[in-house]
Amino acid sequence: MFAVHLLAFHFTKLKEDQIKKVDRYLYHMRLSDDVLLDVMARFQAEMVKGLGRDTNPTATVKMLPSFVRSLPDGSEKGDFLAVDLGGSLFRAHEVKVFDDGKQSSQLESKFYPTPKEVVQGNGTELFDYIADCLVDFMEAKNLKHKKLPLGFTFSFPCKQTKLDEGFLLGWTKNFKVRGVQDTDVVVSLRKALQKHKDIDLDVLALVNDTVGTMMTCGYDDQRCEVGLVIGTGTNACYMEEMRHIDLVAGDEGRMCINTEWGAFGDDGALEDLRTEFDRELDLGSINPGKQLFEKMISSLYLGELVRLIILKMTKEGLLFNGKVSTALLTKGKIEMKHVSAMEKYKEGLSNTKEILTELNLFPSEEDCIAVQHVCTIVSFRSANLCAAALAAILTRLRENKKLLRMRTTVGIDGGLYKTHPQ
Ligand code: GLC
């Protein structure tokens, strides 16, 4: 019994020491409440800048009008097709919406890979691929004879002047397709679909994934007026008063604004918060200097951040007896799925040991505790930053309504949000 206590005491002490060591090392990544309130205030100012006619051209947070003016009210019905490009997989869906007194809908989906040749190739190939996948889906679901309206979820910043048009402002995440920037992606999709003489579809609407998330959630909950995605990338949208949207004529009612918050900080607004690891990650990415807020938050980047941190700690002799492995030196070797596994309640430490061993590091118990804590700090900062920007949006919504207190709903989606253990 005494031995068991001694062992437990030893482990607790070991753990405390490792956690303190990492906390000290990553001091700059642990954001205090004051700093987060400041981030919130900076984001509030960015939103105002993005909405203003004269300030929008130089704003980094683009605050893009979506031309979605209301949420579903339950009276919608019919059969629809939808395609979704921008996450880790390409998706095709059939959506049936019934209007039978109580709202209900049915969704059937098929997932397709998005190989590097497609997401870093040329535009024609990309849109042909989307059309081919859609035809495959219609074949599988026996829908080819039907003329169905098509929704296009395209999760990249687009300048819209109506619902079924969108000029790509620039690629984000791991996409870099030639010849698409500044062109209307709806036109390109229509062209690709017209090559298939055996189907007849028209693109009804182009929406960002955040807008799709808000609308889906709004279908079940009338109070939903914010959409948030934390997945491969991160972004949010919300319902803004038309009178505040300088770029769209008219003052009546509201319109959903796609904030494109991933670009927050691209003008240097977050330089005091970015660490040497954030800078290194950015320099090694396909879009240096771009999407700096996103690079501190979303799943495409968190694994790499963890790798860069533990690599430096190892080089300084703080981990693995100072022995670096080739795998640890290799970009992309630690992914979000590993970070999540290492942070899991109960199995986390044994997962950490397994993952580090696979990287040819020879982790001691201390190493595992320290690396697990590195993951926690990186994930925690991601959640904190998201919360700060979300708080800015919610405060703006409340102030727009001239309320002191407000009850609202945020629709949330994205792989990181759905699978992170904490
Ligand atoms: C990137 C895209 C944005 C999208 C987000 C989440 O930030 O630019 O449009 O909403 O990723 O997928």
Summary tags:
422 residues, alpha/beta, 2 domains, five-stranded mixed beta sheet, 12 strands, binds alpha-D-glucopyranose
Describe the structure.
There is one protein chain. The chain is of the alpha/beta class and 422 residues long. It folds into two domains: 9-66 and 222-422, 3-Layer(aba) Sandwich (Hexokinase, domain 1); 72-207, ATPase, nucleotide binding domain (Nucleotidyltransferase, domain 5). Helix content is 41%, strand content 18%. The protein is built from 13 helices and twelve strands. Helix 11 (348-358) packs across helix 12. It is globular. It binds alpha-D-glucopyranose. Residues 86, 155-157, 172-173, 208-210, 229, 231-235, 260, 262, 294 line the site of alpha-D-glucopyranose.
Small molecules bound:
alpha-D-glucopyranose
Helix percentage range: 40-55%
**Oligomeric state of shown chains:** single chain
Neighbour order of strands in the largest sheet: 1-11-10-9-12
Give the biggest beta sheet: 5 strands, mixed
Distance between the termini: 33 Å
Query: What is the average per-residue confidence, as pLDDT, rounded to a whole number?
Result: 95
Number of separate strands? 12
Beta-strand residue fraction: 15-25%
Rg: 23 Å
Low-confidence sequence ranges: none
Q: Please state the structural category.
A: alpha/beta
- CATH topological fold name of the largest domain: Hexokinase, domain 1
State the gist of this model.
It is built from 13 helices and twelve strands. It has helices spanning 2-25, 33-51, 116-119, 123-140, 185-194, 209-220, 276-283, 299-315, 326-329, 336-342, 348-358, 365-400, 415-419; strands spanning 64-65, 78-85, 89-100, 102-113, 148-154, 158-159, 167-168, 201-207, 224-230, 234-241, 254-258, 409-413.
